[in-house]
Amino acid sequence: MTSDVYIDNEETTAIKKNKSFKLLTFSSLFSLLGDQLTLLTLPWIVLSLTSDSLILGSVIGALGLPMTILMLFGGVLVDRFSPRNILLTTKLVSSVILLTAAFLLYKEMLTLPLLYVLVFLLGTCTAFAAPAASSILPRIVEQQSLQSANGTLMFLRSLATLIGPILAGVILSSSTSQDGAVQTESMALAFMINGLGFLASAFFIYRLLIEHTYKASGQTIFKDLVSAFRYTWNQKQLRLVIIYATLTGLFVSGPIQVALPLFVKEQLQGGPGTLGFLMSASALGGMLGMLIATRVPQIGRLTLGFTLLVVDLIVGIALMGFSTIENIQFAALVLLMLQVLTGYVQVALVTWIQSQSSPEMLGRVMSIVMFTIVGLLPLSAAMAGYFLTFYESDTIFSLSGISLACVSLLALVLTDMSRIKRVKVA
């Protein structure tokens, strides 16, 4: 299979006329905003039931745990059945879970054991929905339009991270006690709106028709998963990309997620408002990068692999310098600029991975890719937490930057990653 993918700039206009893509876009917007509502409302629900921070962490962990243990099997089911049907089912089930939680909250019948069960089931739906959604796009969009389509959906994801907190704040503030505590009615309202949003998302997927070409292999689910790993491993460039993504994710994603709040508190002398400001700047940078990727799919004659490695090298060096920043505005500017670079590369890389996978293996391949990025995040965060017991947060940023720079530099010098062809403008 060739690594060359050609994109015409006129395809940006073509996807706007694609009815199936419009349906997927509307569905994604509702579910992405719903995800943000869940993430921001859930801590308040836990705190209304207990003040134990350990329980709070374990409930959040119960939401992410299925992503780690079930996502790979989700990819197998997506390839065995229609990804459209898998996605439709997960959205309907998610809606039922959220509306049930809203009812229990309103009636003050929700208990911690019930919350654990509902949150775990919600995370399970996400574990199956993620590979299904990523497998649908290449089936409804022409290959020439794939990068523009990916950029649009990723832009919406970043947009949801900006709008979601505002929406959640308005809903949760609609009913508060005299001491400022969030009332049960507000939390129930947030989950009810979220449940109805997933129902709307399911409606758009219901109207989406795609062709499913999977042929039964006669193998067990486990053997199908092994076949996917063998398929991925036998493609040298795809293998290199996944190994590289695993290493950079372990060394960078978790440490930044865990160390940033401490860095804000210890070095920037800030609080929750400062952290929110920095995260908003980061999200805005990602949005800009993804938007640029939809308009400028190619930078000169640079290959995708070379661009990826150089961007990561720049980010690594910047993280080393970031550890010395003491000005909040400058820190926000640095995060914004770094996310412009990574957002752009992310769109191009996901498009390339989708183009390298055969339709019958697409769900499993994308589940492997997402597992390396999302599924290993808890392990990466745990590693960062361990090192934070020995080092300050600024040191963690320095170590993450050094690790990323070294991995990207070694990949540039010792592997063929730099030869991976990028999306070219026809």
From TrEMBL:
List residues of the Major facilitator superfamily (MFS) profile domain. Answer: 20-419
Topological type in the membrane: Multi-pass membrane protein
| Annotated TM spans | 23-47, 53-78, 85-106, 112-133, 154-175, 187-209, 240-263, 275-293, 302-322, 328-353, 365-389, 395-414
Q: Which UniProt keywords apply?
A: Cell membrane, Membrane, Transmembrane, Transmembrane helix
User: Can you say where in the cell this protein is located?
Assistant: Cell membrane
> Which InterPro entries does the record associate with it?
MFS, MFS_dom, MFS_trans_sf
- A family per Pfam: MFS_1
Checking PROSITE patterns in the record gives: MFS (PS50850)
What Gene3D superfamilies is this protein classified in? MFS general substrate transporter like domains
Q: What is this protein called?
A: MFS transporter
What organism does this protein naturally occur in?
Microbulbifer epialgicus
- What is this organism's lineage? Bacteria, Pseudomonadati, Pseudomonadota, Gammaproteobacteria, Cellvibrionales
